[in-house]
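Cross-check.
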Amino acid sequence: MPRAVAAKWHGRPTPSRLRRILRRLLPVAVVIALLTVVPAACRADPPLGLTGIAIATEPLDGPSCGGTAVVTATVTTDGRAGTIRYRWLRNDGTPSADLLQPVRTGEFRADLALSWSFTGHGTMHATATVEVLTPRALTATAAFDYTCRP
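Predicted model, tokenized:
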């Protein structure tokens, strides 16, 4: 007597053909999913790398009366994508908040700029320091003089 007939004869339900196929395919589907997802997760791009920093001031000898100095830190990178977190510190006691500079894949430099405006008469020796916080600590300082005579 065939099994299907014997199973019905003894009152046991026979598994449907679809259930048998799904029962066999489920482990295969799980393995295929794991083989697709796990390597993709392990293949994450390496983080942004910073290779150096340089700093410059415009105008070079400092701003004139009521002028503005632009201090630019140029950070060189390895060309990977990521975000630079940094802040500016001025010797007049004014720090910036933490700032973010996104870097796209293929960009090998990022310019971080500070505009510092001056008013009034007098002389001040000014220094501006950029502190790169992540992905790697870097620091650079620029100095210039503000002079405004009446």
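DSSP finds two helices and seven strands in the chain. The CA atoms of residues 28 and 121 lie 79 Å apart. Passed to J.P. for a second look.
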